[in-house]
Amino acid sequence: MKKNKLISLAFILILMAGLFVACSQPEEELSSLEKIKENDVIRIGVFGDKPPFGYIDENGENQGYDIYLAKRITKDLLGDESKVEFVVTEAANRVEYLQSGKVDLILANFTVTPERKEAVDFANPYMKVSLGIVSPDGSVITDVEQLEGKKLIVNKGTTAEMYFTQNHPDIELIKYDQNTEAFNALKDGRGDALAHDNTLVFAWVVENEGFTTGITELGNQDYIAPAVQKGDTELLNWVNDELKKLGEENFMHKNYEATLKPVYGDTVDPESVVVEGGIVE
């Protein structure tokens, strides 16, 4: 009898030990893509002051070329374009927002560079870009050498800042966080010229008389692409597949017609801007 009791006690202890081990096993962590689907919302970092690419209109709504793509990505991922949470970012915060998990995806005119590739993972591109320099009509800058002894306005964390820091360290840079601040500084005469993405300055001079894009292409042609947190392969692959599918319906050209052509008119060739299907020819 005593032996049977001991066997029963041992059996119970074994069962309890098994339950303890099972309960102590950590649950398998969901991937970012699974979390997005579970939460039924995707957080996308965008600009709020860079028309016509990412900006907030008079009704408080996010608009622009990047936003048009973001809404379609949201619709195809979650079934409804309204299931997006737009998180407004400055250029210098884009990497930080991904690394800290504040956003799932960046669609804020993010130019691909070797330095940025070390910090985030870029999907395939959806846009072409170079640097451009805009200046007042009375003293148009047409060559970088003309900037010697002058003040050049740039935004912090942009390719313009990186380009001039690396290639023309003697040129004085006046740096701002926000696009609005930078362009207002140019209007107010706090700098002699402003360097930014040529696609942006082309649009800005259309809306602002008295200024000219004297240098339309500077440095190499670069590409703008969505970005995800470093190592987030599942979401990265999903975005690349999405861009490929959208290319089959010429989606980015439709995006251009809806968001950029009303600003550019016929002054810009769409093929100099649009990348379709994530494929660079």
Automatic annotation (TrEMBL):
<comment type="similarity">
    <text>Belongs to the bacterial solute-binding protein 3 family.</text>
</comment>
<dbReference type="InterPro" id="IPR051455">
    <property type="entry name" value="Bact_solute-bind_prot3"/>
</dbReference>
<keyword id="KW-0732">Signal</keyword>
<dbReference type="GO" id="GO:0006865">
    <property type="term" value="P:amino acid transport"/>
</dbReference>
<dbReference type="GO" id="GO:0030288">
    <property type="term" value="C:outer membrane-bounded periplasmic space"/>
</dbReference>
<feature type="domain" description="Solute-binding protein family 3/N-terminal">
    <location>
        <begin position="41"/>
        <end position="263"/>
    </location>
</feature>
<dbReference type="GO" id="GO:0005576">
    <property type="term" value="C:extracellular region"/>
</dbReference>
<feature type="signal peptide">
    <location>
        <begin position="1"/>
        <end position="22"/>
    </location>
</feature>
<keyword id="KW-0813">Transport</keyword>
<dbReference type="InterPro" id="IPR001638">
    <property type="entry name" value="Solute-binding_3/MltF_N"/>
</dbReference>
<dbReference type="Pfam" id="PF00497">
    <property type="entry name" value="SBP_bac_3"/>
</dbReference>
<protein>
    <submittedName>
        <fullName>Polar amino acid transport system substrate-binding protein</fullName>
    </submittedName>
</protein>
